[in-house]
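Q: Here's a chain of 221 amino acids. Please give me its 3D structure as C-alpha cells.
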Amino acid sequence: MKKKIYIVLLCMMMILSLVGCSKSQKSNDANSNTNILDTSYDEILKSAKGTTVNFYGYGGNEVMNKWFDTYVIPQMKEKYDIKVKRVGMNIDDIMNKLLSEKQAKSKDGVMDVVWINGENFKTAKENNLLLGSFTEKLPNFNDYIDKNSETINTDFGTPVDGLEAPWGKAEFVVIKDTGKVPQNIEDTETLKEVIIKNPGKFTYPALPDFEGSAFVRNVIY
C-alpha cells in the first residue's frame, strides 16, 4: 500500500524577487521593486544574479540537509551566481514569524523561500502570506509536472492555485515477511485483515512524526 505525500516549496509575500535578494545587495536596483508576477522567468533569473536567497525549512532531516548543502547550494552558485543561505527552523516557528511580520506590516521580511507542509500551507494561504500564483513561470513545472493531478492542485484538501510548487515526493511502503504473511497488502482493507491475523506485529512511525500522522490520516479517510 502506498500513499503519496507531496512536499512543497513556497515563495512568500516578503520576497523581493523570485529567488530573493538581500536588501543590502539590491536596495538601489530598480528590479528589486518589480512585481515578479508580471516578469518573465528569464528576466527574473537575470535580475537574481549576484543576490542571496534565504531558504527556510525544517532542519532536522540530516540527509536532506547534506543534499542541500553539498549539491543544491553549490549548483545555484555555479550555474546562476545565486548564494543560497539555508536556515533550519521548525515550521511552527516559521509560521509564527511570518504571521508576526504580517501583523506588524513589516516590509523587510527575512524569508525568501520556505519549505512547508499542507497544514501550514492552508494557514499561509488564508492569512495572505504568499506571493501569488507563480508556478506557471517555472520551466520544470511546465515540462515535468502533471498539472491535472489532484495531488498537485490540492494540498491536504486546500486548492493550491499556483501558490506553491512540488518539492519532492514520498511514498509509504509496507515491508513484510512473505514466509509468515503470504497475503498481499494492496490497500487499507487488506492491511486491516493482515493486522487482525497477526496481532501486535504491525508498526508505523509514532505520532507526531510527519509520516506517522499522514499514515493515520490516510487510514481514517
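Q: Can you summarize the key feature?
A: The chain has two domains: 5-170, 173-221.
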